[in-house]
Each structure stands twice: as C-alpha cells, then as structure tokens.
Amino acid sequence: MSDITNASAPAPAFPGGTILGYPRIGRMRELKRALESFWKGASTEADLESVAKEVRLANLERLAALGLGRADSSIPSNFSFYDHMLDASVAFGVVPTRFKDYELEHGGFDLSGYSVIARGEGDKAPLEMTKWFDSNYHYLVPEIGPESTFELASLRWVDEFVEAKEAGFVTRPVIPGPLTFLYLSKPSDDAPTGFEPIERLDDLLATYDDLLAELAAAGAEWVQIDEPILVADIAADRSEVLANAAKAYANLVGLEKRPALFVAAPYHSLGDALPVLKDAGVDAIGIDLVRGSVPADVDLTGATIVAGVVDGHNIWRTDLDEALRKADAVAALGATVTVSSSTSLFHVPHTLQGEEHLGEELLSWLAFADEKVAEIVTLAAAREQGEHAVAGALGEARAALKARAEHPGTNRADVRDALAEVDPGWFERGPYSARAAAQANRFHLPELATTTIGSFPQTPEIRKARAAWAKGELSDADYEQAMKDEIASVVRLQEDLGLDVLVHGEAERNDMVQYFAELLDGFDVTKNGWVQSYGSRCTRPSILWGDVARSAPMTVRWAEYAQSLSDKPVKGMLTGPVTILAWSFVRDDQPLGDTANQVGLALRQEIADLEAAGIGIIQVDEPALRELLPLKKSEQSAYLDWSVNSFRLATSGAKDDTQVHTHLCYSEFGEIIDAIDGLNADVTSIEAARSRMEVLPAIRSHGYERQIGPGVWDIHSPRVPSTQEVTELLQLAKDSIPGKQLWVNPDCGLKTRGYAETTETLTHMLEATRAVRGV
Ligand SMILES: Nc1nc2c(c(=O)[nH]1)N[C@@H](CNc1ccc(C(=O)N[C@@H](CCC(=O)N[C@@H](CCC(=O)N[C@@H](CCC(=O)O)C(=O)O)C(=O)O)C(=O)O)cc1)CN2
Ligand code: MET
Ligand SMILES: [Zn+2]
C-alpha cells in the first residue's frame, strides 16, 4: 500500500466481498418508465429525481440485506440516469460546445439539458453512441479537442455518496478512469487532424484531483476507478498506454486528500498493466478472473487484489470450488485477496425471483445479480471462516452443476448428428458475378435502391396487444389479426413513400433475438430479466442453455403474408447466429463456435423454407458481429473464423437468384472489413450516419465488390434530419462507392422511433435519393 496516502490508512478492502456495480434501471424498470415519462413531458424533473432516489436507496437496502457491508465501502454507488460516460463528460465539464445553450448559469446541466446531449434536439446531434467493450451495453462517446476546458462541473457523484450516507450507508463511488475516459473519446469536430484526446491527460487529471478531494471531504473512504481500457488491445501503442497509466496513477496516489483508490479492470486480463498499477501504489486492484487470468510468476506481495471470480457478464451459477481455487491462487502470489464479481452486475438482470416459470431444474443452474451477490458473500465466508462454514451452499452448487452437465437437452444426438453431416460445400455459395446477374434479372432494381433495415415503430398498441395476448386476454386469432393489420399498414406506407425493397416491419417480434429464442429448442426466456442496453432501452437476453434445433418454420407465415400484399420484393428477415449468441446468455460448457453452428443450421432450414414460399430477398442481421470481437488481438482471428463460418453455414444454401442481405450496426468496421467481406452477403447495410460516412474510404480501398448500404439516418435519436442533410450524406457515400453498388437506407431498424419522425425522415430520404440519382 502507498505510504503517502491520507492520514488514516484505509481499512482492509471490502472483507465480506464486493461487486463492481449493480443494475441501475430498477427491479421493475422504474427508471426506464420515469425517464420516458419525463421525455414525453408527462412528469417533471423532480418526479424523475424522486424515482431515481428510490431506485438507489432500494438497491442499497437490497445489497446490505444480501450481506454486503453497509458501512465498509463494499457497496458500490454506480447510478446513472442514462450512461456513465455521459455522466463523466458532464462532470468533467467537457460537453461539446453545441450544447452550450443548454448549460445552467452556474455550470452543469439539468436533466433536460442532460437528455439533449444524450438524444439530440433540433439541429443538435447527440453524442455518438457505441458498444461498451464486448457487451450489448452502449455508451455515449465523449468529444475532446485541444480547446476543451476541463473543470469539475457536477458533483452528482459526491451528492449520491452523501445521500447514501444519510441513509446509513458508506458506499464506494464508481467513476470511469481517466485512461478509459480519454481512450474511448473521439476528437471533437474542430480538432486538427492527428489530435488524440489522450493528449489532454494532464488537464483531465487535475479535474480528478478536485473530484477526489471533494469525495474525501464528503467522507468517502474508497473510490472505484474503472479502467477496462487497460485490458483491451487498442490502436494506441501499448508502451504509451502503460506510461500514461503509470503517470495517471502516480498523480492520483500522490494526492494529499483522497479516498483509497480501487482501480478495477473488468472484461479480460490486465497483463503488463498489472505491475504498473501495483508499482504506482494504488490501494486495491480489481482483476477479472472469469475472462482473464494472472500469470503464475507475477509478484503481488503487498498488493490488495479484488478477485473477480463470479461472472458479472453471464448468468450461470458459479462453480464455487473453482472460484475459491482462483482466489487462493492469487493469494499464493503474495496478495491480500477479497472476492468480487468479474464485471459490474449491470450486464445481468436483478433477480431470479419471479422467474419460477423457468422450472426448478433450470433455475438451479442460474444466478442473476442478487443470487451472485449471495454467492460472493458465501465465497467470502468460506475464505474467512473455512469451507465448513458454508458446506451446505457449496454442496448445493456442486449438485446443480452436475445436473446441468448431465441434462439430455445439453447433448442431443439428433443435433450432433446433423452437424456432423455438414460438409465444406455447405459454407460456399456460387460466384458473386453469377449471383448478381441472376438477381438483376429477377428484381430489376434501380441504382441507389432504397430500403429500410426491417423494423417499423413498435407502437404502444402493438406492445399492449402482445402483453394482452401473453396474459391470455387476447386470443391467438385476435393477436394474429392485429399483427397482420399492422403489417398491412406498414407495407402500404412503404408503397406510398415509394421504397424499392419493402419490409414487413417486425411488429410480431418482441425482440429480434428473443423472438427466435422463443421458437427454437435449447432456449428459455425470462419474464422480467431486463438488462439495460442504452439509456432507457432494455432487453431480456434469452437463456441459451442446450443444443439448438428448429422444430417448425419461424417466420414463413408472416413473410408470405407480407409478400402477398405487394408486387415489390418484401425482405424475409432473420437474425444471424452470432447475434443470437451475443444477445442471449449463452452456455459456457462448449466452444461458442459449436453453438453458433447449431443456430446456423436452424437458420439454413428457415431460409430454404422462405425460398420455397417465394421470398426472393432474405436479410440475416448480424449487428453483433463486431461486439463479440475479442478484446485481445491474439484471440481475434479464431473468433472471426467461427463467426463468419456460422453465417455462411446459415446462408450458403440460398440459390443464386436469392438476394442475401445482412445488416451490421456500430461503426469501427475498418477492423472487421475482411470479416464483412467473408460473410459473402450480396448486400450489406451498415451504420454510418453518426460518423458521417467515416468508414467508406476504408471500404473503397479494400476493393469491396459487392453492394453496400451505408446508413443515411441516425435512427438512435428522435431528431429528423433535413432532406439537405441526407442528400449531403448520400453524396459523400457516392464519392466513395459507385452508384451501382450503393443502397440507400437508415442506419438501423425503426422500432424505437415514432411514426411522425419515421414518415417525415423516410420522405426526406427518398427526396434525397431522387436528387442524387439526378431524376
Ligand atoms: N436484444 C437486442 N439487443 C440490441 C438491439 C435489439 O434490438 N435487441 N438493438 C441494438 C440497440 N439496443 C436496443 C435495445 C432495446 C431496444 C428496445 O426497443 N427495447 C424495448 C423493449 C423491447 C421488448 O422486449 N418488447 C417487448 C416487451 C415490451 C414491454 O415492456 N411490455 C410491457 C407491457 C406492454 C405495455 O403495456 O406497454 C411490460 O412488459 O411491462 C414486446 O414488445 O413484447 C424497451 O426497452 O422498451 C432497442 C434497441 C443493440 N442491441
Ligand atoms: C440492431 S439491428 C436491427 C435489425 C432489425 N432487422 C431491425 O430492423 O430492427
Ligand atoms: Zn441495426
């Protein structure tokens, strides 16, 4: 431990175990509802603040009841109204100047201004949103330039600490670390070429100094500084990253007035950053022992290690024996060890309570956030008092693990046999030139063909109908009719607008993954297992526990019906294997590639059925292809092999004159362009509007020969781009991609949008297309 810390040395770190963070959305999604009501103008800022406070206090009470220490900083304070990176941008006073008008007189933003930065308004584009490490969570990208001024502009972290203290808890505020903050930032629009946000490290550190002093003054004994960037191989030179880490933590450790520093590095191994943090003298280091490991020869004498032995990112019940072995192995390297989750628990739902419909057997294999906290408390007790003290809990865990391994559904002969019969030819389609000719002949599409990504607005009426159907209040026939009416109206709208390739709108899908999980063998779904994806938006990741097989067609009826309503092609719409895995909680007892091929085979059968029903264009979405890319370079090529192969297995049975589309969201395509090429889809739509077509030059220089639809409308925000704005983006796209290869479409599906902005923007998109086509 450092010898230059504050007067009273910190107590041993979190002796009864801890977690790196807890779900923020509320057990019944109270925060989601309060936010959306505030945005609609149906409630006030004070109403929203009061719901948020209730959620925070309920979480504290819950965590203490589950056994985390009330007063020893074991409970993290990690609340956010929308996103923790946005909070950091606001707190450090580095909000882009386009939001100046929304700033309060004394600095900082109220919740209306904060929401505008997140969601945009009028001509103010919001901060860009992108994936948080290898998860389905999205953060808002800070924009930093040489002129950005850093100052402590919000004391929310301090206020929330004080609020907890007044309620009888000494919590541990959780703050994004300076390296993670800057390396995940993008240069502001006015920054000169070549400028990197990390150049502003010294200025940012001065603001952390002020923040840590405020936290110490408020009585915080520990602060958690999250530095997941240290586990990822990023573009920056590793030695530069390590030098910056050494500098940043020497600075923070050397402060006179600060809480003890717990630096957490979830999602993989710290590698050579571990000794850097140790030598800097931070008071505790959090390591991920689920995804990552510690080399057996590292000397941890004198270090305090918060050992992440319970998976924060998946929902399987922990092998407690293995967890104890991992913690012991770190202790054997000389460290003082306490047990923790490997990542924040905000990647998993609150609790298994209320999920009894899953059945006792499956339930006994699972642990959501609250059950994980209980596991951690058990592990801490085992380490403190000896295993005999928790013999009952250890025995139960062993029995559940054994039952899971022996369950017939995890090892089905029919599924295994079908995969064994797959031969290499099943991964190959005919040459693109022949496909392109056959498709041109069949569809006669114009240059700059227009389409959408699949979903149309999921209106409250659609959701209400589905909720009523689930409760048995609406009959199967009435639900079916309601969805057909919706599909008919979506098809009519697209014909009126003049789109070239139509979609059915996905009204019948609760979610693009859960819908398939409900129809495939090997999955189960939760009733209330919500996990935040971004802002107020949540998903219920399905549980992929067994061998996957298709017992009946899943989409054919809907696709056939939609196609019957129009002479234009209506795309069949499927979700690809990688995305189905990524957005489910996936079994951890076999290689992901094997599971992906099981899903791929089921989709291949579905595509054959769609073709037989006369569907000529079939889109297989893979928005999560980039998301699962391993954080370590050394693991990426193996991943890209199996992921691309599973898509090819799904799609390569398609006939030459069937046009296969795929869709990917979330930029940074540069690094996976070979994989995109490898998917071998005839048409690929990608997200590009928020980053103003940034990726296209890379695609052009790659010599990409197939068709591509760079998004011209950022659908993540309710704002309506003008015809001129869309025209400019389209023109930019045309500068990089020949018209023959270019499609016109939004960035992503429209399910989160309303009809007003959808109709208006699609009208602008079609006007822009006509302008650029020159007709
Ligand atoms: N799994 C997944 N991950 C993804 C995406 C995605 O589409 N799916 N898209 C990208 C962006 N992320 C997104 C994540 C969620 C949503 C989204 O729209 N979520 C909806 C919920 C979607 C859903 O599951 N809907 C269900 C249940 C809806 C619901 O809340 N029903 C009410 C009852 C109905 C009522 O009376 O209103 C309830 O349960 O309380 C349905 O339609 O059936 C939300 O948070 O509001 C969009 C994008 C990346 N990751
Ligand atoms: C997150 S990717 C979404 C693709 C899907 N087809 C949709 O339009 O909603
Ligand atoms: Zn998308």
TrEMBL record:
EC class (word): transferase
Membrane spanning stretches: none
EC number: 2.1.1.14
Similarity section: Belongs to the vitamin-B12 independent methionine synthase family.
Cross-referenced InterPro entries: Cbl-indep_Met_Synth_N (IPR013215), Cobalamin-indep_Met_synthase (IPR006276), Met_Synth_C/arc (IPR002629), UROD/MetE-like_sf (IPR038071)
Cofactor: Zn(2+)
Name of the featured protein: 5-methyltetrahydropteroyltriglutamate--homocysteine S-methyltransferase
GO biological process: methylation
Nuclease among keywords: no
Record's keyword terms, sorted: Amino-acid biosynthesis, Metal-binding, Methionine biosynthesis, Methyltransferase, Repeat, Transferase, Zinc
NCBIfam families: met_syn_B12ind (TIGR01371), PRK05222.1 (NF003556)
An MF annotation (GO) of this entry: 5-methyltetrahydropteroyltriglutamate-homocysteine S-methyltransferase activity
Function: Catalyzes the transfer of a methyl group from 5-methyltetrahydrofolate to homocysteine resulting in methionine formation.
Record has Hydrolase as a keyword: no
The Cobalamin-independent methionine synthase MetE C-terminal/archaeal domain, residue ranges: 448-770
Ranges for domain Cobalamin-independent methionine synthase MetE N-terminal: 18-331
Pathway: Amino-acid biosynthesis; L-methionine biosynthesis via de novo pathway; L-methionine from L-homocysteine (MetE route): step 1/1
